[in-house]
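User: Sequence in, structure out. Go.
Assistant: Echoing your sequence, followed by the structure tokens.
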Amino acid sequence: MASTYRSPLTGHGSVFTRRSATGVRKTCLWQKPFNAPLIAPLKLFSPWNGRSVARTPRSMRGTVQDQVVVEGEEAEVGEGRPLRVGLVCGGPSEERGISLNSARSVLDHIQGSDLHVSCYYIDCHLNAYAISSAQLYSNTPADFDFKLESLAHEFKSLSEFAEHLANSVDIVFPVIHGRFGEDGGIQELLEKASIPFVGTPSNECRVAFDKHNASLELKRQGFITVPSFLVQKHNVDKVELLKWFTGNQLDKELGRVIVKPTKAGSSIGVTVAYGIDDCIDKAKDIISKGIDDKVLIEMFLDGGSEFTAIVLDVGLGSDSTPIVLLPTEVELQCFGSGDVKEKDAIFNYRRKYLPTQQVAYHTPPRFPSDIIDCIRGGASLLFKRLGLQDFARIDGWFLPSHAVSLKDKDNMFGNTRSGTIVFTDINLISGMEQTSFLFQQASKVGFSHSSILRTIIHHACLRFPSLNSHNNAWNALSRGLQSAHHANAIPKCSGVQKVFVILGGDTSERQVSLMSGTNVWLNLQSFDELDVTPCLLANGYSSSLHANEKQHDAHSKTVWSLPYSLVLRHTTEEVLAACIEAIEPVRAALTSHLRNQVMLELMGGLKRHEWFTGFDILDEQPVKFSLEDWIKNAKEVQAIVFIAVHGGIGEDGTLQSLLDAAGVPYTGPGAMASKTCMDKVSTSLALSHLTNMGVLTIPKDVRSKEELLKGHLHDIWHDLITKLRSETLCVKPARDGCSTGVARLCSKDDLEVYANALQNCILQLPANSLSKAHGMIEMPNPPPGSLIFEPFIETDEIVVSSKSANGDARRLVWCGQSEWVEVTVGVMGRRGAMHSLCPSITVKETGGILSLEEKFQGGTGVNLTPPPTTIISEEALQKCKQRIEIVANTLGLEGFSRIDAFVNVHTGEVMVIEVNTVPGMTPSTVLIHQALAEQPPIYPRQFFHTVLDLALQRSN
């Protein structure tokens, strides 16, 4: 039976429905009727009716264009033409990789028939390029830089770039973090060319971005500030620093302080120092690395809790009305023993942007009510006094009464009966990745990704008379905004298809699974005919259990059906903790009260805007099921299960078997194929008869973990290299996913290091722990019960040199002596008729080691899709694809999978490494590149819908 929900903000309006976390319909009341504008539909084959259907994304975004457009468009803003937004990303800062992720997210959520996005990239030398939207899905800045010469249009100067923008876009949305994006650089460029843009003007950016100047301004404005000392490039005054230490009662030998650049964004270069000498050394290190020529030394706020708050301006024109959303408490956590005085002391770049259990977020904060009120009131006041515009993120600290005491705080803003509030950082362009603070906090008060971004853009447009005067265009934008606001709330037609996206699990790949599942959910939930619910697979089991024990244990697992805001986290542990916290009665009541308070404040400003029709995210609770009951619920509501669980029961056939037994359709290969591919030995055996067809396998030797831990490693090593006829071996878990525990072993000593890591349950092998140079190796957790050893296949390294012979271009360096290169290939289609996408070769820059940032945030290195003909001929590439299809069909794959292999560049012979039946589906995964390389290109939203179609075709 449908339950009725009445918004506390409206008392009249039209009725529409929205699914709840349980899949049950909810009837909701909103202000205005919904009138969706027409868009050009996307034609695809649908198994629902066996014919082509028009798929209309409910956020009105349609298909993203795949062209670099550099000519100006002279038409006025008016009826019939969408608002033209120039999305500018990249920049010279070390945060440019995060900028690319932010830009991808913005593009995904704002592009539509009423709003056209053109994409631009600024490299580290401040060269500007027009790029295609497809290129925005590249992995890393290195990937961008390598492909710019062939895929982008370079402007001769920033002046030419500005002239182009003035003729080609209506408003610019800068998504550059750090230098040039937040320091007033790009804002000044746009102001001189009279180009409207989103965000704060250049002069105000300069003050707010420089941490030293901002601290001085805050103090002048009556805010409590953290005591600080400025170190400049050629003026490190140790005597004055000693006076500062003494004046702040800090021990000159061990006094703990924060050392950070004044102008490098909120995370880059921030570190902890102990005593004066360490402090000076770390300040000089920041300066010598070129991060900044000025460094700020601050007191460490011991005993405090860090918070961050998004501020949204909902005023009209120049009338600033900043409303602070629900702030987020940043809780640093310590796991394990040992000296953690520095590594767990600060919320640094790695903890901010990477999956880690060392940090957890709480929205709203677990602070006293007067502290939350003080944070919101202070951030709003600060926004106004510093002249910020449209939106910003403001960070700070709550110091309880018993924590470190600050001087000179009487009669200053931030004093409360419960403690002290200190604001420390102003972020003019907050991160906009899919799970960023902006979207976490916005979703808590009723905004989807699309609606918060479009609200920010609309507000920015109102400040520019050249845009505000075109009423017809605003009517068009208004219709688009209505559709975006109702993205999750419009009435469903009778043919709606429920989709449960299951993510998480307990393998070492669970954090990547969270990223994959979140990306799938956000892409699919834009379609009118789909009702998509994200679901967390919780609880764990050991991968070493026997199959019958696994099957039994699978029934003991739990699944949480998640509301919108709880998905937006960095780790599965954090999602689970947020679920438990959300259903705690006192906490739930407080969150609901604060949510309603903020929504009322927002409505006070937004109701003056003609386009605003209401919020589009409901205040829902997570629902806990046993796995068995969750499958029954999927059966009852006739849902398709989109499997995004990497490894474990998501990839070994267990989940597939359970769904088969219940008659619930799901994505990807069936139970038998999944089980075969999860076991790398079984995979090789299944393909062993294909040698005469050009499909080779690598010999393997399986050893149990107990044998390695209890046996004589010298004898084991000798036995392995004798049997496998190779002096260099590759070791990997026998039944885990593809991303963890894979290492190159060159000696008995390397084997010993690896075995010790298994015995001590080490989560990561640090870079260069083994005899051959390598990056950080993520280890499986829990350790696998058995491991596979195989000959390490030598390939000639492919590198991207930073300069060519003429000193300008970047080029590939490959000697080609071994004749083999490693590729990864996506395959998709029906069983027996699998289609190979274009293979990709992954390379790294000269002298580089793939970092954790590249692995989790932007994919890995530079991806060559398609492979250059200078490495593999077109004929060999086609033979490779044919053999990959033979592999896929022999293994009984269907839906979508990924095959990793070595390919002979002359013959196209394929040597299979492994097959992943639930491959990574993160925003920048290489498989997205391969789909975009198809003719015509397949964009992410279309790609994931096609995967669903294939699942339904099988069930029918």
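User: And one key feature?
Assistant: The two ends are 29 Å apart (CA to CA).
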